Amino acid sequence: MTDQIQTPAADRPVALVTGASRGLGAALAYALSHSHHVVAVARTVGALEELDDRIQAAGGSATLAPMDVTKPDAMAQLCRSIYDRWGGIALWAHTAVHTAPLTPASHVDAKDWSKSLETNVTAMGHLVPYVAPLLGRTGTALFFDDPAAPGAKFFASYGATKAAQIAMARSWAAETVRTGPRVQILTPRPMPTAVRARFYPGEDRAALTPCPDEAARLLATVLTPAT
């Protein structure tokens, strides 16, 4: 973790956002900062610092963790640091994803396929076991589905690995119905992100839902006054 560690107010729970540097992840981190102390995880330091500036300007607080979610040792260190400092978290929003370029299945690049597996699937194998103890029985884990991608033309790498990620989340959700934590899989509306611009060039972006609006809508379905 970086030196930019702040102690949340006594009445503010802690929220962990993995993939917080841009798009929906950044919007969720900013929205959560109004009610939570946010631990923001991403590889891009500059984008995290910009997010932190916006959070502080709005009166919130954040801890920046410029880390790669595919590195088990780094994630273990982060989760241990969270436990030592705060004892746990109230919410985990996982938006980190690798979006490989569109290509026919017969032309999938080996490096893109490997990176998609590493980020979208393999990382789940250590993130869920590491974060689950921090959530305890009462925390909430959020995952974000993209049901249009699996099986769609040219989406082989991203679609297949995103489907696998969500499959693991669904298994965890089924396993914890009675014991907690609460595991929810949400489906965001199309947003004008840089990734979507690559996937759907020429699309009317004015018709898409802004990331901050979508973050607010999604969080309204899961946050309660008790948090």
TrEMBL record:
Pfam families xref list: adh_short
UniProt keyword DNA-binding, yes or no: no
Keywords: Oxidoreductase
InterPro entries, A to Z: NAD(P)-bd_dom_sf (IPR036291), SDR_fam (IPR002347)
Tagged with keyword Ribosomal protein: no
GO molecular function: oxidoreductase activity, acting on the CH-OH group of donors, NAD or NADP as acceptor
Family statement: Belongs to the short-chain dehydrogenases/reductases (SDR) family.
Protein name: SDR family NAD(P)-dependent oxidoreductase
